[in-house]
């Protein structure tokens, strides 16, 4: 089947899914289809690669994946519209990256009593600028990208120094242990599978972590690289400073990451652009979470509440994952400060409702 015919068939199927509320369906018009359906990126990616998952899964929220970094430019009429809608911004004018001065942060432990925050995590996604995203990658690409990533990770020193564990050849025991610790990723997401995210699984994929398991890197999961800094308790400063140190060390070790002016750092899914930074705490808030104003309270502070096992999951014992909602249109230090203020407000509100006490 030729490219134009396949694009037309997918578009027809998308229009027939009248119950779909995806951003892809909302913004892929006949005119945009006609302009983009026969174009190819410099990595060989096509519009078909970008929309296939959203067509096969009409209940998708976004429904659009970038086939490679160049997709954000080649298919800009579609991507820009979806990005503005998802991120609730009128202009795509993301500022220059700024993590702030780690020596001058005005926050430390958000829960010194240790009664409410179970753990803290900050993560960012990064993409190699010389490789495409899953739909266009070959098996050889994945192996080469893994090699370049591991070479850089093995240069890390001090508390960041660690070990890389490739998925290929990993024993069942190691795999189970890492899954139980919520460190390891798997191939169970049907949206990613439809987008080509699990092609050649598990080749070229693995996990790196330091000795204390407070710094992790996922290699070739959804994104090329995902850096994660985490620890028990509420010391956001320690977690954030560790992540900043790792990002800067890896950038200076020869890795070059994909960016676009106005969009910041580029990743596979347009929902995660700009800073790509997600800072979160697992926090015990049984009183506030039971309140009818919980959602409105979170919206007021630009924070998002999820179950502790991720989006669309339920809370366990009043413990929620609270994170910053905005990633595009602000700097990294602004994003972390927004999350910090939100968590502080959540703690204050929980205490005012009679919560925040030891079990």
For the record, the CATH class of the domain at 3-87 is: Mainly Alpha
Strand content: 15-25%
> What is the CATH topology assignment of the domain at 3-87?
Transferase Creatine Kinase, Chain A, domain 1
- Computed over alpha carbons, the radius of gyration is 21 Å
What spatial form do the alpha-carbon principal axes imply? globular
Succession of helices and strands = HHHHHHEHEHHEEEHEEEHHEEH
Number of helices: 13
Topology of this structure?
Elements: H1 3-16, H2 23-27, H3 30-36, H4 47-56, H5 71-74, H6 76-87, E1 117-126, H7 139-153, E2 162-166, H8 172-180, H9 190-194, E3 206-210, E4 215-219, E5 225-232, H10 236-251, E6 259-260, E7 264-265, E8 278-284, H11 286-289, H12 294-300, E9 303-306, E10 319-324, H13 332-352
Antiparallel strand pairs: 1-5, 1-8, 2-3, 3-4, 4-5, 6-7, 8-10, 9-10
Describe the protein's architecture and organization.
This is Arginine kinase. It holds the Pfam family ATP-gua_Ptrans. The chain has about 350 residues and is of the alpha+beta class. Helix content is about 35%, strand content about 15%. It contains 13 helices and ten strands. A hairpin with a 5-residue loop joins strand 4 and strand 5. Helix 1 packs parallel to helix 4.
Concise structural overview:
The protein has 359 residues and is α+β, with helices and mostly antiparallel strands. The protein is built from 13 helices and ten strands.
Tags for this entry?
eight-stranded antiparallel sheet, alpha+beta, globular, 36% helix, Transferase Creatine Kinase, Chain A, domain 1, 13 helices, 359 residues
């Amino acid at each position: 089947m030729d490219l134009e015919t396949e694009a037309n068939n997918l578009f027809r199927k998308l229009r027939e899914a009248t119950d779909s509320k995806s951003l892809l369906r909302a913004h892929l018009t006949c005119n945009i289809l006609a302009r983009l359906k026969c174009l190819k990126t410099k990595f060989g990616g096509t519009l078909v690669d970008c929309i296939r998952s959203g067509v096969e899964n009409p209940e998708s929220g976004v429904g659009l994946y970038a086939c490679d970094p160049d997709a954000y430019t080649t298919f800009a009429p579609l991507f820009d519209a979806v990005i503005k809608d998802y991120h609730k911004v009128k202009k795509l004018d993301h500022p220059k990256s700024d993590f702030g001065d780690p020596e001058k942060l005005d926050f430390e432990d958000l829960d010194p009593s240790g009664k409410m925050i179970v753990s803290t995590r900050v993560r960012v996604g990064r993409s190699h600028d010389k490789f495409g995203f899953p739909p266009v990658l070959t098996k050889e690409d994945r192996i080469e990208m893994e090699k370049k990533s591991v070479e850089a990770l093995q240069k890390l020193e001090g508390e960041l120094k660690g070990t890389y564990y490739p998925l290929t050849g990993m024993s069942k025991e190691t795999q189970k242990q890492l899954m139980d610790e919520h460190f390891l990723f798997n191939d169970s997401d049907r949206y990613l599978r439809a987008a080509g995210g699990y092609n050649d699984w598990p080749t070229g994929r693995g996990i790196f972590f330091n000795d204390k398991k407070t710094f992790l890197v996922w290699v070739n999961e959804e994104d090329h690289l995902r850096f994660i800094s985490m620890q028990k308790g509420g010391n956001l400063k320690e977690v954030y400073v560790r992540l900043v140190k790792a990002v800067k060390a890896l950038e200076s070790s020869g890795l070059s990451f994909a960016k676009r002016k106005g969009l910041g750092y580029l990743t596979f899914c347009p929902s995660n652009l700009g800073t790509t930074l997600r800072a979160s705490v697992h926090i015990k808030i049984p009183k506030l979470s039971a309140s009818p104003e919980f959602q409105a309270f979170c919206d007021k502070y630009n924070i998002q509440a999820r179950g502790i096992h991720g989006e669309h999951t339920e809370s366990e014992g009043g413990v929620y994952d609270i994170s910053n909602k905005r990633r595009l249109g602000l700097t990294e230090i602004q994003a972390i400060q927004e999350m910090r203020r939100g968590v502080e407000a959540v703690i204050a509100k929980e205490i005012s409702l009679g919560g925040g006490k030891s079990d």
